[in-house]
Design a protein that fits this description.
There is one protein chain. The chain is built from six helices and six strands; from the N terminus they run E-E-H-E-H-E-H-H-E-E-H-H. By secondary structure, it is of the alpha+beta class. Strand 5 and strand 6 form a beta hairpin. The chain is globular.
């Protein structure tokens, strides 16, 4: 397995795999339950652009894959619906073709960032940061 995974400048998690995009996404879906996640949505960005009348290069391939801990997400929003604005965003994994390889980018939220959005909700900041780290482990397991 060809893989390279790292945090770029301490923020953006990036990885590559020899798997095809469908192969990586399939592996992500299969591994998600091990990390208490499911795949909520797979969004084909190329098709969306084309459907909106944009000429898209034939080689352009990019997908937004949204992971979710469904029970945890719902329970968290029941406690504080304002969490939804912060909770849903960091679950997006971007999968694309770059120089003939499948590349993956993921932006995990830090506790400090979450605390800026919801300063009174320390427990949420800690839990969401931990969930973001689980997503990185899920990505690594799926490479």
């Amino acid at each position: 397995m060809d893989l390279d995974a790292e945090l770029k400048e301490g923020v953006l998690f990036s990885a590559t795999t020899a798997k095809s995009i469908p192969g990586f996404i399939k592996s992500l879906k299969e591994n998600a339950p091990e990390f208490n996640f499911g795949i909520r949505h797979i969004f084909d960005m190329r098709e969306d652009y084309k459907n909106r009348g944009i000429e898209v290069d034939e080689g352009f391939q990019a997908y937004q894959v949204v992971a979710c801990n469904f029970a945890g997400s719902y329970k968290s929003m029941q406690k504080n619906i304002n969490r939804a604005a912060v909770l849903l965003e960091p679950k997006q994994i971007i999968v694309y073709t770059n120089k003939g390889k499948t590349s993956i980018d993921y932006l995990p939220f830090t506790r400090e960032f979450i605390k800026q959005a919801l300063p009174e909700d320390e427990k949420f900041a800690q839990g969401l940061e931990e969930a973001c780290q689980k997503i990185i482990r899920l990505i690594r397991a799926s490479l």
